[in-house]
Amino acid sequence: MNIGTYLNAMRDPAGLPSPAIIFDFFLVLTFALHILLVNLVIGSALLILYGRFSSNPNAKLLSQSLTRLFINSLSWAIVLGVAPLLFVQVIYDPFWYTANTMSAWWALGFLAFIALAFILAYGFYLGGGYEGKSTPLWIILSLAFLFLAGIVMHSLAVAQLVPEKWPSFVVKGGKYLSSGSSLHAFELFRFLHFMVPALAVVGVWLIFYGDYFKGSGKYSEEYLNWVKQFGAKLALYFSLIQAVVGFIWLITIPSEFKFYTNPFFILALISALIFLALLFKAQASPSQYAKPIAGLLILTVLLMSAAREALRMAYFAKAGYSMANYPVNPSYGSLLLFLATFVMGAIVLLYTAIVAYRSGKGIKEVGYEGLGKLSVYLMWAWIVVMVVIGVVIAVKNGALF
Amino acid sequence: MYPIWEVPYLSSALVIGLIASFHVLPSHLAVGALWVTVFIEKIGLEKNRPEYFAFIKRFTLLLLIFAFIFGSLSGIGIWYSATVSSPRGISALIHNYVWGWATEWVFFLIEIATIYAYYYTLGKVDPKTHLRIGYLYALAAWISMIIITGILAFQLTPGKWLETGDFFDGFFNPTYFPQLLTRTSVMFGVAGIYGLLIASTLKGETRLEITKIISRFALAGMILGLIFGYWYYKKLPGPAQQLLSSLPYMQALAKVTLIVYAILTLYFLLTAFIIPRLNNFVLSLILIIATFIGILSAEGIREGVRRPYIIFGFMYGNQAVAKDLPAKKIKSEVETFEKEGLLSRLGYLPENLRKITPENRLEVGRVIALHNCANCHAFTDSGLRPLPALFQKLSPQSPEDIDAFLSALSAFPYMPPFIGNEEERKAAAEYLFTLVNKKK
After folding, report:
1. Is the per-residue pLDDT at A1 higher than 70?
2. Domain ends where: B316, B347, B363?
3. Residue range of the domain that includes B391
């Protein structure tokens, strides 16, 4: 049995409930959002530390105010990570499950590290981090655990790309290693490519931060201008470093893939170059370019996520696997359930975002009554529809009584 | 088959069990909490009692820390532990219910957004908006329970799905509604005991008033939970009920569950109507620990009565498909393994370990034994259902005795059949015999 036969035999016997491409679309989309948030988490933690050790009073103040961003974005990074985690095991199950069981303790450790990082972050917050108190040691440790979690996830992802090496990972000296206590792969520049943008992403965030608090009376004009300039500088410098890291990663990719000719890669590259050009231009007056910068950042990350997916497909094709051949047993009803919920969720999230946004600006009477009421109605409608379907099906199947 | 993970002393299934049981506490808290809080906020607004908001602030912070660190991560933890313990089991669930989980994920997003908004905007936005945000959270959290219960109940009673393979037939299965209503009721008990812990840190009249409100909510939940719980029990399949009534450890778990349930209900009764003053920090903390033990036992029963299946009637604990499902073109695998052998499916192993030779016999036997047994049995001398001790009880004189036992495994109602061909079974028996000898 060659590895390709094994991989195809390990696909789930139930097949997919929808064509693979739908899962892949959501995988790429949600991974991009997840990695943006991961970058925001790491970037904000680094700036909290920077402010603590800097003599610049502006940096100190920024450090305080980023405490909440750190915690909140960590929650968002986790919950946004759930979706790609789900979709990857639908279309790439043979890879995902093998890599995880081979390093089982580490896979579980990944979550333990995040939990510890989260607890430490709260330790900092509850100790008065928002008021400039609390020891930075909390953040240093929290960040260390986040890096550890990142290394684990990276290693599991890279181990999936080399199925031909799996037999050598699980057997040493004729003995099968059942303990799941080793990690098996690591690529430095690939890993760095996911980490370095942290300060670029938080830099873009800071430009918006400066605009958001302008006129709220919470911070001085001078401070907010400094934040914006600082953000624009961070975004530029770390995007440049990212370009270098990306280039080195590119030349370490197996040449047989000719990855530099991949359309997604080329599009991502073009988008990244425009992003960089805009950042150069924006240094003098960041606010003026805030929206196009943010738009291009998101676009670039989305295209990079697509390019990363194309790269994964190239590795898997080499092993004789293609998600496109996965048998499909369609379940239209459940797909419809998700799509309808997704749209409904967007409306509820929009309302919540408006409330949070306006409240943060010091507006007490939020308004948007219609949208608020609609959100509640939609949630109830969801429940009613599900219960009706449920009762009808359960009665039909004789399952209710 | 995927590589198999061996967990000394515990077995890999118990790792899932421990994480899953822990998860019940923060998750049921997360689901029940804001129904109570929003109610208290409403009363506080109507009666103009701003001091109630101190409770809300503290309770929500506890929720943020406990439910959203440990709840969300232990939830993902169940998934991860299932990934490494029973990859084909979780794969079967995901390939049937991926859109269900994706739907639940949308509500996770709403939960995160609304809980932060609720916490940070207390007193900063108009009361109506704030209440609405709390209400949206409560709805989203409850819907996440509505969804996950379908998948949990499916594992125990897949119902019509075994014929049709249809998402909704499996989702709205025979134990779905009873389980959903039981969980919905009991979540008020879980939220109640946390609420009482926070209430015990308040002062004066407010403390007593809030204690009473919470306890009444919780008591109502516990009483309803009992009624729905009975319905749930009655809906369990015959073999599951039999396991519950015949296995001593199940009986013990049932007793613990009921005792904890009774104590908690009594406590709520006392603090709701008779002596609200009774509630204090230490007592409510002890009761939270007791609740944890009760839940651990109840979930232990739910997992235990499913034996020998991961998905009742469809997939065995050793991850082999037990039954044909023509609607999805799935074939039972037990016979295939018997004919073609298990090794032919272990493509993750190097070639030289996929054929039995005199030199590798014991090592290959170990791998075969791990695939068959390691999910539920420890291979160490002590621990959960440890194989060396269990086999020693049979006093086998030779590997053949163990082989005879393995070939008759399916005669035990809670054991799956051995998967593999005769040669592989013999190799496994030889390896297992060395475990018994080592123990001697």
Report:
1. no
2. B316
3. 333-439
For residue A115, which of A156, A78, A157 has the smallest C-alpha distance?
A: A78
Over range B57-65, report the average pLDDT: 88
Q: What is the pLDDT of residue B439?
A: 59
Q: What is the pLDDT of residue B2?
A: 97
Q: Positive or negative, the Cα torsion across A200, A292, A75, A126?
A: positive
Do B172 and B297 sit in the same domain of this protein? yes
**Has residue B259 been placed in a domain?**
yes
Question: At residue A281, what is the residue type?
Answer: K
Q: Give per-residue pLDDT as tens, A362-392.
A: 899 999 999 999 999 999 999 999 999 999 9
Distance CA A48, CA A136 (A): 8
Instruction: Verify whether the Cβ–Cβ distance A83 to B140 is below 8 Å.
Output: no
Mutation to test the B interface, candidates A33, A363, A366, A389, most B Cβ within 10 Å: A366
Q: Give how far B219 is from chain A: nearest CA, Å.
A: 25
Taking an 8 Å cut-off on Cβ atoms, the answer to whether A399 and B143 are in contact is no
Whether B326 maps to a domain, the answer reads: no
- B238: domain CATH number is 1.20.1630
Total domains, chain B: 2
CA B344 – CA A10 distance, rounded (Å)? 12
Does B355 lie in the same domain as B274? no
One domain for residues B110 and B222: yes
Instruction: Please state, for a pLDDT cut of 70, what percent of chain B lies above it.
Output: 100
Interface contact A17-B143, CB threshold 8 A: no
**Can you tell me the distance from the alpha carbon of B320 to that of B332, in angstroms, rounded to the nearest whole number?**
8
What pLDDT is stored for residue B62 in this prediction? 85
Q: Do B172 and A393 touch (CB under 8 A)?
A: yes
Say which DSSP state B416 is in.
P
Residues A231-277 have pLDDT tens digits of 999 999 999 999 999 999 999 999 999 999 999 999 999 999 999 99
Express each pLDDT in A212-240 by its tens digit. 999 888 899 999 999 999 999 999 999 99
Residue ending a domain, among B285, B316, B347, is B316
When computed from its CA atoms, the radius of gyration of chain A, rounded to whole angstroms, is: 24
**In this structure, is residue B301 part of a structural domain?**
yes
- What ipTM, to 2 d.p.? 0.96
> Across the interface, do B129 and A341 touch by the CB < 8 Å criterion?
no
| CATH number for the domain harbouring residue B419 | 1.10.760.10
* Nearest-10 crossing angle of helices B399-407, B422-439: 130
If you count residue pairs, one on A and one on B, with CB atoms under 8 Å apart, how many are there? 288
User: Which of B301, B274, B270 shows the shortest CA–CA distance to B284?
Assistant: B270
B109-142 pLDDT, tens digit per residue, is: 999 999 999 999 999 999 999 999 999 999 999 9
Which one-letter amino acid corresponds to residue A381? A
DSSP H or E run through B310: strand B309-311
Residue numbers in B near A3 (CB within 8 A): 347
